[in-house]
Design goal:
The complex is a heterodimer of chains A (about 500) and B (about 120). Chain A has 19 helices and 2 strands. Chain A is mainly α and about 500 residues long. Chain A has a domain of about 220 residues. Chain A has a two-stranded antiparallel ribbon with strand order 1-2. The relative contact order of chain A is 0.09. The mean pLDDT of chain A is about 85. By secondary structure, chain B is mostly helical. Chain B has a single domain, classed as Helix Hairpins. Helix content of chain B is about 75%, strand content about 0%. Chain B has 5 helices and no strands. Chain B is elongated, with a radius of gyration of 20 Å. Classes of the chains: A mainly alpha (about 500), B mainly alpha (about 120). Chains A and B meet through helix 5 and helix 6 of A and helix 2, helix 3 and helix 4 of B.
Chain lengths: ~500, ~120
């Protein structure tokens, strides 16, 4: 069953078709819609599981869509990095479960089917993005996921939701166009769109200027998608305005697409072998370090809890990008594992924040004082998420930050390791503020103590993710040993 | 310099269009104008990629009795067809967002929207 070759195309087709059919299936039967969406995601997760087992057993493999060999056909390629489909399916599934009550109570009934369509399309885009081996296909999936993300930000119907979505759309669309331009430039010098093929042909290219332009364009636009510091301005509004399950997907998964794009670009250029990437690496390390500090700095002054979490995402993207830029074996392992762990942690935090806001109707720290006594389980999940994101052992966040710091020493740049630890201290400050006001301060609104726990459909996803935050800290060896061969293969002769 | 630009007009012109579009996106306050800038950028990239596939004196790559080499490269055309669909859906989404913004705030001028908060 594991070796059935068509799993790789199934994992894209099932959610894509499921998404488009959602409004049809749900016509006149609104109760069926969430169950249908969950069923589609369950089937997708099954395919993801099969693919991950196969890649763990036999290493990377490819699927030629329609049987056309490269460079003519579209190739789907599944390597250890593509195992991110696992986390996409997991967080996606839990966010859909969370939506079960949440959406029914916050979004107008006629929009509900389209909400599920958009979420499924968004997940399809991400899954396609990480499994494709073709640059143009990469662009198409990037657009599927970006467009659905813009629409999902607007769907909440809150006061400035459309404005936030428009800001996100303008920045996102410009970066998408630059991706397309860069792909065109790469095509003009190599005559191929297949990533592995481009990597092998780039080595012999004499015209370096278009290649360098393409590299710069791809790096810049993926930095916008990842919301790295000077290009982050779209993120805080979009992530805090969106409905909470969507925030969890956007913050846990969608921004990672930018990082993943950078990873793919690195794979191509390391594969080509003859390009000096020191300049890009230095830029990424510095921007990463600045993002860590500035993200944390802005977060300290936020009152709105979702806004705080959104700025915290910028810090964490900084960690991942810094790990990529350090380009040593440890830092790359740390960065790739942090892609996975941060999705778990931020998923926990955003879903828990969503449950709190949904039950109490308040969203600022002052208003939410004392909520820890009213919603003990949810607030415990927030605390677990907070200690994981700061990186206190033995939680999920500790391990990746430790590896990135080790990588900084391995790459001979210890100053960045120290910057990273100071960044963690900054992050500690504002999460302490959050935990302090939830548990130890006198309630501003006494009626908040009467609020009960969230319904089970919200509690289960929060608890599953919070448990995983702890479990992944203790079993951290598993993702690290899983990703290690891929990192060594990618760094190749550059491995330090 | 100028001769080089003239000889590569099919690449230079899209690049200029691209920069004009980028200018409009950054500098214009009106949301519709901003978005027109974005459309100009998209068109510029499409033109650039189309120009990659052109072969002097090439014919359409359809194999029938009258077919004769050289053929133009059909891949950029196929790519741009997809690209246009993507651009169209982006435009549709953006315009509907602009309509909603207008309904809620009564203006689509960026500076006035900022004052509204």
């Amino acid at each position: 069953m594991v070796s059935w070759p068509h799993w790789l195309v199934t994992i894209i087709i099932v959610p894509l078709v499921g998404a488009v059919l959602t409004p049809v299936v749900g016509r006149g039967r609104p109760k069926v819609i969430p169950i249908w969406a969950l069923g589609i995601m369950t089937a997708t997760s099954l395919a993801a599981l099969m693919l991950i087992i196969r890649v763990a057993q036999e290493g990377p493999f490819s699927y030629l869509v329609g049987g056309w060999a490269r460079p003519y056909g579209i190739e789907l390629h599944f390597d250890e990095f593509s195992a991110s489909v696992g986390i996409i399916c997991l967080v996606g599934w839990l966010a859909l479960l969370f939506s079960y009550h949440y959406v029914a109570e916050t979004i107008p009934a006629r929009r509900v089917p389209y909400f599920y369509t958009l979420v499924l399309l968004n997940l399809t885009g991400m899954i396609g993005f990480v499994v494709t081996g073709d640059l143009f296909n990469l662009f198409v999936f990037l657009e599927i996921l970006s467009l659905s993300a813009y629409a999902l930000v607007a769907v909440s119907g809150e006061h400035i939701a459309e404005m936030a979505a428009f800001k996100y759309l303008v920045m996102g669309a410009v970066s998408s166009i630059v991706v397309l331009l860069s792909i065109g430039l790469l095509y003009s010098v190599t005559g191929s769109l297949n990533m592995a093929d481009i990597a092998s042909r780039l080595a012999g290219v004499e015209q370096r200027l278009p290649v360098m332009l393409a590299l710069a364009g791809l790096a810049m636009s993926f930095m916008v998608k990842a919301a790295l510091f000077p290009l982050h301005i779209w993120l805080p509004d979009a992530h805090s305005i969106a409905p909470s399950p969507v925030s969890a997907i956007l913050s846990g998964l969608v921004v990672k697409v930018g990082v993943f794009g950078l990873l793919r670009v690195y794979q191509i250029f390391y594969g080509a072998g003859t390009y000096d990437l020191t300049g890009l690496n230095t830029a990424l390390v510095w921007l990463g370090a600045i993002s860590i500090v500035m993200g944390a700095f802005f977060a300290i002054f936020q009152e709105d809890i979702k806004m705080m979490l959104a700025y915290s995402t910028i810090s964490n993207i900084g960690y991942i990008v810094m790990g990529l830029g350090l380009a040593s074996q440890y830092s790359l392992i740390g960065a790739t594992v942090h892609i996975f762990n941060h999705a778990l942690i931020k998923g926990t935090l955003f879903l828990a924040a969503g449950a709190i806001i949904h039950k109490t109707g308040y969203r600022t720290l002052t208003d939410l004082r004392g909520v820890g006594k009213a919603m003990p389980v949810t607030c415990m999940a927030v605390s677990i998420g907070a200690i994981s994101i700061v990186g206190i052992p033995p939680t999920a966040g500790f391990l990746c930050k430790w590896y990135i710091a080790l990588g900084a020493f391995q790459a001979g740049k210890p100053a960045f390791g120290i910057a990273l630890i100071f960044g963690a201290l900054f992050i500690f400050i504002y999460y302490i503020r959050m935990v302090n006001s939830f548990y130890f301060q006198k309630p501003t609104h006494p009626e908040i103590l009467e609020v009960g726990e969230a319904p089970l459909s919200m509690l289960i996803p929060i608890l599953v993710l919070a448990t995983l935050c702890l479990v992944m800290g203790i079993l951290g060896r598993i993702p690290i040993s899983f990703i290690e061969p891929a990192v060594i293969r990618m760094l190749g002769p550059f491995g330090g | 310099m100028l001769t080089a630009l003239w000889n590569n007009l099919d690449y230079a012109a899209p690049m200029m269009l691209f920069l004009i579009g980028l200018y409009a996106v950054i500098a214009k306050d009106n949301l519709i104008k901003k978005f027109m800038g974005l459309n100009i950028m998209e068109t510029a990239v499409f033109a650039f990629i189309m120009a990659l596939g052109v072969v002097d004196g090439g014919s359409a790559p359809i194999i029938d009795h009258g077919a004769h080499a050289p053929f133009t490269n059909p891949i950029p055309q196929a790519l741009i067809l997809t690209g246009i669909v993507v651009a169209l859906s982006t435009t549709a989404l953006a315009l509907s967002l602009i309509i909603r913004i207008y309904e809620q705030c009564g203006t689509i001028e960026g500076n006035e929207l900022r004052e509204l908060g």
